[in-house]
Amino acid sequence: MRKAIITAALTGSIHTPSMSPYLPITARQLIDEILAVHEAGGAIAHLHVRDQKTGIPNADQDSYREVITEVKKRCDIIINTTTGGRLGEPVEKRVRVVTCMKPELASLNAGSLNFALFQVIEKVKEWKFDWEKPYLESTDDFIFPNTFKTISEYLTIFEANGTKPEFEIYDSGMINNLAFLISKGVVKKPVYLQYVMGILGGIPATPENLVFLVDMTRKLIGDFQFSVCAAGQHQFPLCTVSLIMGGNARVGLEDNLYLEKGVLAKSNAEQVRKIIRIGRELGVEPATPNEARQLLGLKGLDNVAN
User: Fold this and answer.
1) Burial of 184: CB neighbours in 10 Å, binned 0-12, 13-18, 19+
2) Most buried by CB count within 10 Å: which residue of 37, 99, 153, 193?
């Protein structure tokens, strides 16, 4: 059976505590979620951190260290740290985790976009924390900046720390950005892409658009591996299409708070188990963390900082 890499994006910087009581906030909650994801069959945990009292996304290095150090003691899952961070985080803070923790894998956004969340405000009836509504409202006038200069600087830091980039592709123009950087020798092949679909400001989450993105990447880049994540109700349908197309899948509460229509997911592991069940029905087995390391050419757990 074909092996596919299953990633769980644990908490992200999109959803707020008022949207689900199951969204992990504290370092302890994130540790428990990662261990459960590993037990469920996930190979990669995509890690953001938050203020442990209010749940506001941040880039606190002590929180990263606490989570990564404890998880490393307990299991062999791959930790994929964000360099997106919270919305509006200064770019120099976003990449600091790569220098501090030297992860095997880290996200690297392949271009700038309007990253809009303000449209979800009307769905929340009561707010737990004062920061939540203004945080979401501010995205009406927010550009998520990832310039050619920033990407190139990040790649230098990644290379110095032995960290492989997972390029986040929010729209088709970002594939062109990546192809240009490859042609200039800034990006080295083979590349690993995460197609991020369904964010307002990026490409809509449809099967047709996924086919288009993969076809465009083949034409412009050629040698690549890909995974798919999709916002909200599109998560499981688009991840399933990815598995059918020979790709990998990312689930998790960063992207979707529900297990099925009207049913909140109680954990990231629930979503991992669901996509693994779907994959097995299609003849796809989940890759172990070490199999994922081989597929992606990662440096290994022993080279991650404590």
Assistant:
1) exposed
2) 37
Domain with residue 286: its CATH number is 3.20.20.70
Question: Which residue from 134, 61, 69 is spatially nearest to 304, judged by alpha carbons?
Answer: 69
Residues contacting residue 29 through CB under 8 Å, at least 6 positions apart: none
What range defines the domain where residue 267 resides?
2-303
CA dist list (Å): 89 to 13, 35, 56, 97: 11, 28, 12, 13
DSSP secondary structure code for residue 77 in this structure: P
- What is the total count of domains within the chain? 1
CB 290 within 8 A of CB 299: no
Kindly state the tokens that stand for 128: 């737990």
Q: Are 298 and 164 in contact (CB under 8 A)?
A: yes
How confident is the model over 184-212, as pLDDT tens digits? 999 999 999 999 999 999 999 999 999 99
